[in-house]
UniProtKB/TrEMBL annotation:
Pfam families: Ras. The lineage of its organism: Eukaryota, Metazoa, Cnidaria, Anthozoa, Hexacorallia. GO terms for molecular function: GTP binding; GTPase activity. NCBIfam families: small_GTP. SUPFAM superfamilies: P-loop containing nucleoside triphosphate hydrolases. The keyword Transcription does not apply. This is Ras-related protein Rab-30. Keywords: GTP-binding, Lipoprotein, Nucleotide-binding. InterPro entries: P-loop_NTPase, Rab, Small_GTP-bd, Small_GTPase.
Length: 228
């Protein structure tokens, strides 16, 4: 069994990749997970899944990449995938102005359906097509990203430009967020236990120090839990 299908990873994150038809969503995921690029590729139908395990500071992080169809008729089905996404990559084609102009519309769906903590990245793909073919300049894309509070990166699935950087940075950010969430949850549990023990001691005080049999059991249980 290869590393990507085994279950020995510490974190699992779901990354949803969206954007207009032909921007290179499938090519980007294929380059990252399988390490190759194909010129002739069929348009995606519905949603497909591919995964890869990356090593971040000695911890294994499994990235599940959800490749979606850009075609309009699939968007209703795809919306149900937004809710579980830890990160969303919104892609456009640097040689196709229309695909960049669609980003605000994709953002409407992202804001409507994704978890507010999801990491959002704007990706301009096909950097290998330079000169006159390029229709979107980096400044406009970076401005939009800044305004919408997105990370921004330019890639080429064909030339393998920035693909590893994109997914590694995403994995690092998601791992960091997961650690912070766990820490916050632990703090909340500790605060709850402290509040609970204070309320039990004030209850005993209110009883004038006389503890009914039932309360002694509860009190011991909480004490044992706190000291363990
Ligand atoms: N030159 C160049 N072509 C690319 C790049 N990425 C993808 N392509 C080409 O763009 C076309 C569309 O790529 P796909 O990966 O199928 O695009 P998609 O976004 O998955 O499209 P849908 O599945 O229809 O939504 C294909 O011919 C790819 O070979 C790139 O980085 N550079
Ligand atoms: Mg596709």
């Amino acid at each position: 069994m290869d590393e990507n299908t085994r279950n020995d990873f510490k974190y699992l994150f779901k990354i949803l990749v969206i954007g207009d038809v032909g921007v290179g969503k499938t090519s980007l995921i294929r380059r990252f997970t399988k390490g190759y690029f194909a010129e002739n590729i069929t348009s995606t139908v519905g949603v497909c899944l591919d995964s890869k395990v990356v090593n971040i500071s000695g911890e294994k992080v499994k990235l599940q990449c959800w490749d979606t169809a850009g075609r309009e008729e699939y968007q209703t089905i795809i919306q149900s995938y937004y809710r579980n996404a830890d990160a969303v990559i919104m892609m456009f084609d640097l040689t196709n102005q229309g695909s960049f102009a669609s980003i605000p519309q994709w953002l409407v769906d992202v804001h409507r359906y994704t978890n507010k903590d999801a990491v959002k990245v704007l990706v301009g793909n096909k950097t290998d097509l330079k000169g006159a073919r390029r229709m979107v300049n980096s400044r406009s894309a970076a401005n939009l990203a800044e305004f919408e509070d997105l990370l921004y990166l330019e890639t080429s699935a064909k030339w393998d430009d920035n693909i590893e950087t994109l997914f590694t940075e995403l994995a690092e950010q998601l791992r960091e967020n997961a650690k912070t969430k766990t820490l916050n949850r632990m703090n909340e549990t500790n605060n709850f236990l402290v509040r609970k023990s204070v309320s039990i001691s004030s209850y005993i005080k209110r009883l004038g120090g006389k503890i009914p049999f039932q309360s002694v059991t509860n009190c011991c249980r909480v004490k044992g839990f706190l000291s363990s």
